[in-house]
Amino acid sequence: MSEESSGRGPIDAKVETALAIFFVVFSILFIWQSTKIPEPPRNISVGSGTFPIIVGTIMLGVSIALAWKRLREVAPRLFGRGVGEMTVVPLDDDDTGIRDWPAVWAVLGSFLALIVMLEPLGFVLTFALFLFGLSSFFSPGHWLRNLVTSLCFSLFFYYLFTQVLLQPLPNGILAPLF
Amino acid sequence: MESFSGILSGFAIALQPYYLMWALVGTAIGTAIGVLPGIGPSLAISLLLPFTYQLVDPVGAFILFGGIFYGAMYGGSTTSILINTPGESSSVITAIDGYQMARKGRAGAALATSAIGSFVAGTIATFLMMVLAQPLVDMALRFGPAEYFAVMVLALCSVTGIGGGQPMKAALCTLLGLVLGMVGIDITSGAIRFTFGIPTLFDGVGVVVAAIGLFAVGEVLVGLGNLRGQKQARFMDTGSLMMTREEWKRSAAPWLRGSAIGFVIGVLPGAGATIATFLSYGVEKRAAKRPEEFGKGAIEGVAGPEAANNGSAGGSLVPLLTLGIPGSATAAVMLAALQGYGINTGPLLLQKHPELVWGLIASLYIGNIMLLVLNLPLVGLWVKLLKVPEALLYPMILAFSVLGVYSLSRNVADLYIMFGIGVLGFLLRRYKYPLAPVILGLVLGPLLEKEFRRALIGSRGDWWVFVDRPLSATILATSAIVLVAPLIGYAWRRLRARPA
Fold first, then answer.
1. With CB atoms 3.0 to 4.6 Å apart as the test, which of A75, A139, A143, B401 could cross-link to B216 if both were Cys?
2. CB B446: neighbour CB atoms within 10 A?
3. Does the beta-carbon distance from A51 to B171 stay under 8 Å?
């Protein structure tokens, strides 16, 4: 399987290793935070910190084992057999591979923008812009269909929530209109 | 006898036009989400909660959710068979022989054996659920905190031990779920933990927020990250839905075996429908008179797994309704929904809300019949759903996610939590860490800690309390076996693989 077709490359391998190490660090921080939980003043046998410390300790053990396994997988490629062999992680039936990373960044960026702008711009405007922008990014030839669908979706759900379910949604800068 | 009178009262509820309508809506939505990529039953139920809290009473909501759960299992097979693209992970195995049958012009027979198998398994699983509910509740009512703690430990260990072939990764995800469950105000002492002074976290991380983040965001990122340059799927012609006499004969035993395997695996927390289908496929291949046909269009390879995934859906509702312990991510979201309605889960659910439990069980019988009708004659209609452009579908899933989470709390901070959990979920998914254990850990964590502390407070700090009582000791020993068995198997395989 080629690097391109599998969607995995050297950066992926590094991220996977970093994730395994991150869990070790996270477990240590979690145990440290657990030890700082104040015990209740009453004289009871088990306080609020006991259970988190137990869970944190088990998690530390598991994450160390995972990181060790991961490092053993990558170590020969990092130190032993040259750069050529460390570029591709062996895979079996990869159904989570990404072929188009710019698309992933575009989705993450627009999703974050949707959350940030929801209250300042209002529900209708933010949702319409988000849907139109993202659908046109992936399907630029159908901008009119995308525009109509985005507007219909936003207006339909705005009225469904505010008029039928009686749940307020932010109006933002369009407050004078709604 | 109690089960019989219970189910009669359940039918009296479920056959009311209002509840029949919700069963029909649920089965239709379930089939649709089974067909469509990117939305599973747990995500669909999470997204529907803002609507159900406002519009539907708890009984109606659970009839709706039950229909979605069963329907998704039916619908997932359609795309597996017709375009070799499973709508659900539990239909992945169906694609192997189902698509080959379609290529040979037997798509209609594959769809028929799949739908009839789902019906048989759904009905058997619902019957077993009905029979087992009362005895299990009677047993659970005798449980003390130590036994409850032990049962939940068993649930989490089985998630880890048999939850998808990567025990260490499953264990880490379970523990991550437990950690998320500890955020917020400690229900026993009132202490505030792991909130870093952020008021939104005082109430903890919501199960629905986490489920939407984990399942929706990751799925959309993978879907859109591969959309451009993707080849257009080629649809197979459905053809006649009639099965030949030989196909009926070859399907009957796999339906029954698949139902049994699915139900047993479904009752075990965390094992889930996907594992049930793989097990069933293996069993059918071994039992088949012509195993060489597997992978080339053997009808047993469709009939068994399709029965197994529906059997497991029914099985996973048993611990939820009798013990308050979910057996799958979807059941976990249903548990959170029950809590959202202010209903206390656990063995007392059947005593305090018999209309909900028996109404749901009765509606599952009815839903199964509805699904058979919806899935066979209307298969062409469901296939048309696949013509919804993915460039619109995936952004809409994200938009629904934001709408669902915001409308539950009207707090933008929850959206940021969902975003963060979504990115984490994407990374976990990307590197093959299973996601369902995170949700199960999050749901079971607070309950586990509560029973752990109750047991220790009751024993005045004596840690032997967990193994003093025979039942609790037996369950904990079973948990240890479940946890260690894959490691022993792994070590054994390595030992055998080593040259002498």
1. B401
2. 18
3. no
Do residues A103 and B390 touch, judged by C-beta distance below 8 A? no
Q: Using an 8 Å Cβ cutoff, are B330 and B42 in contact?
A: yes
Chain B residues close to A19, C-beta within 8 Å:
427, 431
Give the number of A-B residue pairs with CB atoms closer than 8 Å.
171
Contact yes or no for A120/B363 (Cβ under 8 A): no
Of A52, A63, A104, the CB nearest to B182: A52
CA gap B456, B318 in Å, rounded:
28
H or E element, residue B495: helix B470-497
Classify strands B184-185 and B192-193 as parallel, antiparallel or unpaired: antiparallel
Alpha-carbon distance values, B402 to A80, A104, A116, B57 (Å): 48, 18, 11, 24
Residue B102 and residue B388: Cα distance in Å, rounded?
A: 22
**Å between A81 CA and nearest CA of chain B:** 23
Using CB atoms within 10 A of its CB, is residue B394 exposed (0-12), middle (13-18) or buried (19+)?
Answer: buried
- In B328-349, which positions are buried (b, 16+ CB within 10 angstroms) versus exposed (e)? bbbbbbbbbbbebbeeebbbeb
Token readout for B395 is 């952004």
pLDDT in tens for each of the 500 residues of chain B? 677 788 889 899 999 999 999 999 999 998 888 888 767 888 888 888 878 887 889 999 999 998 998 888 888 788 788 877 776 777 778 888 888 898 888 888 898 999 899 899 989 998 998 888 888 888 888 888 898 888 888 888 877 766 556 788 889 999 999 999 999 988 777 888 888 888 888 888 988 899 889 888 888 888 888 887 776 666 666 777 788 888 899 999 999 999 999 998 888 766 667 778 888 998 898 888 888 888 888 999 999 999 998 898 888 888 888 888 887 888 888 888 888 888 888 888 888 888 888 999 999 899 989 988 888 888 778 877 777 888 888 999 899 889 988 988 888 999 999 999 999 999 998 888 888 889 888 988 888 998 898 888 888 878 888 888 888 999 899 888 888 877 777 778 777 877 65
Q: How many Å from the N-terminal Cα to the C-terminal Cα in chain A?
A: 55
Instruction: Please give, rounded to a whole number of angstroms, the shortest distance from the CA of B249 to a CA of chain A.
Output: 33
β-bridge mates for residue B192, sequence order: B185
Ordered DSSP codes for B329-388 = HHHHHHHHHHHHTT---STHHHHH-HHHHHHHHHHHHHHHHHHHHHHTTTHHHHHHGGGS
Residue B163, amino acid:
G
Return the H-helix or E-strand segment holding A66. Answer: helix A50-75
**What is the spatial distance between Cα B348 and Cα B346, in angstroms, rounded to a whole number?**
5
Given CB atoms, is A59 within the 8 Å cutoff of chain B?
yes
| Residue carrying the six token digits 């007392």 | B348
> Do B389 and A142 count as a contact with CB atoms less than 8 A apart?
yes
d(C-alpha B305, C-alpha B50), whole Å: 34
Beta strands in B201-354 (DSSP E): none
Contact B461 A45 (CB under 8 A): yes
Chain B residues with beta carbon closer than 8 angstroms to that of A168: 410
On chain B, the residues whose CB falls within 8 A of the CB of A157 are: 403
B388 touches chain A (CB under 8 A): no
Q: Answer whether A107 sits within 8 Å of B55, measured CB to CB.
A: no
Nearest to B429 among A50, A59, A96 (CB): A96
Contact of B207 with B442, CB cutoff 8 Å: yes
**Cα(B232)–Cα(B1) distance, integer angstroms:** 55
